């Protein structure tokens, strides 16, 4: 009886001991032990918790909402210094094709530690087998790492304190030549002013580059002939002027670029060339050229991104089509927003523009709908006719349109360009206020027969820029204080500008370039302290009459231009009145300057070779501010070889007026205009 009881006690004790050891060997207990070992960071005799089946993002979601560079920099530094913050944020999973491949193929891999097993990352890669996992402990490494086999390489604790710097100039830090490579959790940076690349992928597929912080590099990530690759949750920063592209992707397809942050980039943040069927989503991109999409970059989707900089779509050739730009936010006063050139069949939908907008140059058959500029509708019409615009708009873009009318008062300011007229004819735009745009107030290309009336513009780059635009009328408008020119006519003919006021710019007031048979009548120019109120360059047969030009450095400057008529103008209190200038190849000849009142404004001319000495400009019947009995001499110069010969020359107004020429009063002006 007693022996039976004693035997039962022994059996119970043995069972308890077996259960205890079974619990110690269970997966849960082993995981707890490994976590404690990893946190103590004493050795890896018991490997730390293997998180290779899923890797995590160390960044908070709200970092993508930061739009201030200083905030972003401060937050980035905070993350790097605060380990607990990063550990607490390991809760966001992303798809890992590397792991999917291993799961599908039942791949068994080894785990290698740096610097425990190998002192450098490169030596660990060289000694690893395909599909091994390389874990890099905290520290600072200088290395050139060539990866030519499928590997999962990541830092032990994310990017908290694992820094890799370049070893060889003009070589990447990580140079990847294999499919199925995952690289995660590193700070990759350069402290020297040399040319370095952070991560390069060449002819690689199904790779993942995630959770890295790259900065001070010429190119942070470069993909060349790479397909089915994910770039997720990286921070890309640039502090030096030598920096080029943040991420450059060329000759690739099916690339996914998500949840990344760019800041302080001088040039392109994200650059696509020959890249197709790719997705750019949920990124924050800061840079003068936030994203550039070049030739043969088709069928890409750019969605839900924030751009502090512009999106340029193909400024190289005519082969860029079928991209979708949807639900993005663009803001930055010095950027274009979206610039599309030689592009076709794109969809630009539901985007929000703050202090910028859309600029179109030779781009057709695009679908541009439901976009907002500064809280107002962006009005885009293509291939429309006989339409009256009655809404309140942030931009008006007309492409291949005719007989469009907008008489509703509009404020088209703080965008990239207020009005665009592309291949548009016989339309009327009036009653607009346009100021502080990044480029032009009004841009026209191949526009003809249009009327601009009562337009008030100021503080744009150019107030009006027309190229290849003919038979247009601009009247009763006021243009002031542009960063460059008030109006540029480039290869524009038979346009009429009348009864406008032009005041002050940092360059010329109105500039004609290879533009003929234009008429300027009853306009007022004043305050052009730097260059010319009216510059006529390589242009012929323009008529400048009944205008008033005051208080400018140069009233009218005729440069390499022939056959222009300047008469009945008030040219008063300018440093120079009318100048007829030549170059070594071209002269200004056969221009007529007569019946003007030229007061306190010196006139002149110049020649550069003996064969140019035609003296064919005609000065006649001008009033020079005083009663003259003798002809009025016009001083000019002949410039021989540089530094060798300068000879003064004279032309003459042989019949100067003794009293001022009559300029029409307001009633007579009205009848004359009619």
Describe this entry's structure for a reader.
- Among the domains are: 2-38; 61-293, Pectate Lyase C-like; 484-673, Pectate Lyase C-like (3 Solenoid), CATH 2.160.20.
- It is elongated and about 105 Å long.
- The chain has a 37-stranded mixed sheet that branches.
- It is mainly beta.
- Residues 14-95 have low confidence and may be disordered.
- The relative contact order is 0.04.
- The chain is 12% helix and 44% strand.
Please indicate the percent range of residues in DSSP E strands (runs of 2 or more). Answer: 35-45%
What is the rounded Rg?
Answer: 35 Å
- And the CATH topology of the domain at 61-293? Pectate Lyase C-like
User: What's the number of helices?
Assistant: 7
Uncertain runs are 14-95
What do we call the CATH homologous superfamily of the domain at 61-293?
Answer: Single-stranded right-handed beta-helix, Pectin lyase-like
CATH architecture of the domain at 61-293: 3 Solenoid
Query: Which structural class is indicated by helix and strand composition?
Result: mainly beta
CATH class of the domain at 61-293: Mainly Beta
Biggest sheet layout = 37 strands, mixed
Tell the overall outline: elongated
Overall pLDDT level: 82
Report helical residue fraction.
Answer: 10-25%
Record keyword descriptors for this entry.
674 residues; Pectate Lyase C-like; 37-stranded mixed sheet; 18-stranded parallel sheet; 7 helices; 12% helix
């Amino acid at each position: 009886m007693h022996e039976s009881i004693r035997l039962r006690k022994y059996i119970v004790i043995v069972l308890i001991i077996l259960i205890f050891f079974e619990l110690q060997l269970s997966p849960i207990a082993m995981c707890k032990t490994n976590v404690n070992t990893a946190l103590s960071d004493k050795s890896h005799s018991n490997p730390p918790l293997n998180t290779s089946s899923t890797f995590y993002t160390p960044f908070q979601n709200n970092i993508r909402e930061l739009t201030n560079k200083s905030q972003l920099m401060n937050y980035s530094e905070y993350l790097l210094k605060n380990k607990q913050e990063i550990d607490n944020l390991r809760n966001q999973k992303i798809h890992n094709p590397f792991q999917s491949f291993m799961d599908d193929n039942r791949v068994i891999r080894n785990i290698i530690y740096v610097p425990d097993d190998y002192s450098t990352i490169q030596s660990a890669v060289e000694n690893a087998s395909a599909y091994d996992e390389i874990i890099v402990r905290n520290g600072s490494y200088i290395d050139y790492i060539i990866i030519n086999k499928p590997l999962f390489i990541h830092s032990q604790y994310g990017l908290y304190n694992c820094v890799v710097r370049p070893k060889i100039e003009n070589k990447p830090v990580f140079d990847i030549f294999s499919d199925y490579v995952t690289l995660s959790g590193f700070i990759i940076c350069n402290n020297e002013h040399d040319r370095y690349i952070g991560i390069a992928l060449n002819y690689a597929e199904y790779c993942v580059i995630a959770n890295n912080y790259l900065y001070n590099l010429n190119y942070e990530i470069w993909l060349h002939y790479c397909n089915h690759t994910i770039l997720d949750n990286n921070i890309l920063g640039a502090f030096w002027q030598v920096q080029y592209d943040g991420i450059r992707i060329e000759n690739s397809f099916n690339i996914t670029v998500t949840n990344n942050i760019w800041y302080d980039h001088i040039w392109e943040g994200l650059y696509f060339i020959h890249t197709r069927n790719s997705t750019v989503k949920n990124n924050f991109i800061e840079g003068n050229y936030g994203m550039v999409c070049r030739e043969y970059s088709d069928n890409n989707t750019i969605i839900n991104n924030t751009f502090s900089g512009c999106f340029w779509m193909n400024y190289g050739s005519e082969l860029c089509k079928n991209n979708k730009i949807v639900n993005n936010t663009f803001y930055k006063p010095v950027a274009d927003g979206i610039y599309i050139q030689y592009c076709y069949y794109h969809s630009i939908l539901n985007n929000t523009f703050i202090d910028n907008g859309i600029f179109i140059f030779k781009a057709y058959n695009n679908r541009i709908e439901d976009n907002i500029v500064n809280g107002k509708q962006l009005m885009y019409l293509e291939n429309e006719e006989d339409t009256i615009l009655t809404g309140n708009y942030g931009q008006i873009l007309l492409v291949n349109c005719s007989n469009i009318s907008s008489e509703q008062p509009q404020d088209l300011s703080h965008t990239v360009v207020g009005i665009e007229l592309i291949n548009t004819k016989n339309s009327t735009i009036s009653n607009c206020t346009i100021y502080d745009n990044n480029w032009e107030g009004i841009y026209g290309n191949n526009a003809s027969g249009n009327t601009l009336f009562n337009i008030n513009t100021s503080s744009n780059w150019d107030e009006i820029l027309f190229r290849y635009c003919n038979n247009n009328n601009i009247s009763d408008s006021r243009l002031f204080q542009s960063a460059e020119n008030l109006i540029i006519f480039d290869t524009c003919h038979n346009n009429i500008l009348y009864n406008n006021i032009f005041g002050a710019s940092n360059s010329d007031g109105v500039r004609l370039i290879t533009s003929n048979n234009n008429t300027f009548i009853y306009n007022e120019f004043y305050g052009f302290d730097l260059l010319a109120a009216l510059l006529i360059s390589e242009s012929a047969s323009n008529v400048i009459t009944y205008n008033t030009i005051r208080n400018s450095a140069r009233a009218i400057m005729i440069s390499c231009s022939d056959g222009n008529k300047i008469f009945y103008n008030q040219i008063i209190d300018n440093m120079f009145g009318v100048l007829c200038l030549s170059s070594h190849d071209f002269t200004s000849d056969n221009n007529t300057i007569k019946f003007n009142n030229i007061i306190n404004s010196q006139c002149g001319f110049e020649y550069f070779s003996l064969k140019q000495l035609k003296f064919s400009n005609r000065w006649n019947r001008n009033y020079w501010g005083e009663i003259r009995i003798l002809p009025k001499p016009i001083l000019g110069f002949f410039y021989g070889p540089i530094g060798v010969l300068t000879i003064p020359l004279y032309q003459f107004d042989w019949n100067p007026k003794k009293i001022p020429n009559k300029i029409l009063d307001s009633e007579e002006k009205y009848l004359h205009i009619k």
